[in-house]
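For the sake of transparency, this paper describes our internal protein records without simplification. Such a record has a labelled line for the sequence and another for the backbone structure tokens. Nothing more is needed to write down the fold, since each code stands for a local backbone conformation. For reference, a complete record is included directly beneath this paragraph.
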Amino acid sequence: AKQRVSAAINNDEEAAPEQAVKLLREIFNRDGNHRDAFRLLERLISSVNDPGSAVELLREFFWTLGDAELRHELGLILAEFGRDSDETIRALRAATDAKPDSKVALERLVREYRDVGDTDSAALVTEQLLKLFPVGDAAGFELRLGLARHLANNGDTLPRALHHGEQLLAQASDNPRAISLMAEILEQGGRPLDAEIYLRKLVEQQREP
């Protein structure tokens, strides 16, 4: 059966992809966790001009797949063809669950949550993403800075904002944006005297030649 699917994928005839989908469906109906068949389906989706029927087949059988590597890869593909935000997020969640250290999947999930206005979920995934950046990484610094600013806007998440502010200063103790943010977090947290220490540091920086 696998050879017939491969032949159908390599066939230039217009009906060949549909024949491949039909054959793959027969395989999945017998074994919904058939690794080689999923690999062929992945290849089919990427090789035809109109992968619609192949994507539908993936939607139908993806959730039976237990192989973590494939679940990550195919989850990313399924997300590309998401019919709505809920389906896209669900596919990306499956991809990140299968591979928690996937920067690609986590970054896409953050963007998707932001696009639908779910900033709380975006912040949680961002915290997961930050664990993958090495200490001193410039991109990680900017990501943490934006996250800390967002968390500082809510009293319930101020402790998390403070944690990230401390991490920023540990990475770049003289960075004026990190210092200013820490002062803001402390002020909002009811610690004006501590905030003043950082504000004075900012003033001293500005006075230095």
About this structure: Residues 172 and 178 are 8 Å apart (CA to CA). The chain has a mean pLDDT of 91. The radius of gyration is 24 Å. DSSP finds twelve helices and no strands in the chain.
